[in-house]
Specification:
This protein is an alpha/beta fold and 342 residues long. It has eleven helices and ten strands. The radius of gyration is 20 Å and the shape is globular. The mean pLDDT is 94. The structure holds 5'-O-[(R)-(carboxyoxy)(hydroxy)phosphoryl]adenosine and zinc ion.
Length: 342
């Protein structure tokens, strides 16, 4: 079975054609990174407008690259949440229109569950069941997937998402947007032991996350206790690198610790990681060592499948279709993870 996947939950307009849930025949991602860079974050209204301008071309290009005309598809999978509601509506409406026009089944895909599935795209493959850690600009969640398409959410951030914290701290440190890669680069020349930031664990055994205290700690370190000091408070390049390294170490430690705790809680031998932050080199290293120590099998996506893409959507969509989980044409866009069904 060959599916078209469509993804427009945030600032990437993406479409992909995937056969049998794993063979990626094409994957097109039109990033709006440059458009939002000058604002230091995604501006929802602008994101919607750009999705609208490029969605048709992106879908056409994905079909052409795969050499599959729309009429030969078996189904269309589109993300219907969580995400920016206006942005979601554009991809979802395009998918609904194609589904109606070509009389193809429509599959509604949960964006966070699709991030967990990303590590199952070649050259990787997931052995289920797995605990899923998704850390991106919009989400930080822990979940348990018994099989692809059956997911139970176990923890989430109560304030900022991990990627959002990277972006905000990069902005405090004057490192630019998107913050994740910028912090990672600055941290390479920094020493994390010179600036130790707090690790917020919440209650004992909690699988939830909180990163806003860490972000504030960086702000105070840079601008003084009232946060109103001079920009960068006269820090030199080495001090900025040390703060970046200390921050990255704190966030990575919490992500690793809670993922291991979730594997223990579910007595699960595997951990699949997804989302933009899964591209972080230090996180990948520390997850690797923790997995070896704890005898957990670690499944990491290729870098291009960490950030938003539609191959993970078409891939997971295939499994949902096989489970008979098709969606009606009036399926809604749902901005909040907690309000999504399944
Ligand atoms: O998954 P994604 O493309 O979009 C959302 O669904 O949010 O994730 C984007 C986020 C951004 O916050 C970005 O700063 C972060 O992922 N990111 C990274 C790295 N690459 C991207 N964070 C840490 N280290 C990286 N190397
Ligand atoms: Zn995402």
């Amino acid at each position: 079975m060959v599916l078209l996947g469509v993804e427009t939950s945030c600032d990437e307009t993406a479409a992909a054609v995937v056969a049998e849930g794993r063979e990626v025949l094409s994957s097109v991602v039109a990033s709006q990174e440059d458009v939002h860079a000058k604002f230091g974050g995604v501006v929802p209204e602008i994101a919607c407008r750009v999705h609208l301008e490029v969605i048709t071309q992106v879908i056409r290009r994905a079909l052409a690259d795969a050499g599959v005309p729309a009429g030969r598809l078996d189904a269309i999978a589109a993300v219907n949440g969580p995400g920016l509601v206006g942005a979601l509506l554009i991809g979802l409406t395009a998918a609904k229109t194609m589904s109606w026009l070509h009389r193809l089944p429509l599959v509604a895909v949960n964006h966070v569950a699709a991030h967990v599935y990303a590590a199952n795209l070649p050259p990787g493959s997931i052995e289920y069941p797995v605990v899923g850690l998704v850390a991106s600009g919009g989400h930080t969640s822990l979940c348990y997937a018994r099989i692809p398409g059956e997911i139970e959410f176990a923890g989430a951030t109560i304030d900022d998402a991990a990627g959002e914290a990277f972006d905000k701290v990069a902005s405090i440190l004057g490192l630019g947007y998107p913050g994740g890669p910028a912090i990672q680069k600055a941290a390479e020349t920094g020493d994390p032991s010179r600036v130790r930031f707090p690790r917020t664990r919440l209650g004992p055994g909690s699988l939830d996350f909180s990163f806003s205290g860490l972000k504030t700690a960086v702000l105070y370190r840079v601008r003084g206790q009232d946060g109103k000091g001079r920009d960068l408070g006269g820090l030199d390049a080495q001090e900025i690198a040390d703060v970046a390294a200390g921050f990255q170490e704190a966030i990575v430690d919490v992500l690793v610790e809670k993922s291991v705790a979730a594997c223990r809680r579910f007595e699960c031998p595997g951990l699949a990681v997804g989302g933009g932050v899964a591209a972080n080199r230090r996180l990948r290293e520390k997850l690797g060592s923790a997995a070896r120590e704890e005898k957990i099998r670690l499944f990491l996506p290729e870098l291009r499948y960490c950030t938003d893409n539609a191959a993970m959507v078409a891939g997971l969509g295939f499994h949902l279709l096989r489970l008979g989980r098709t969606a009606p044409l009036d399926v809604d866009a749902v901005p909040q993870l907690g309000e999504l069904v399944g």
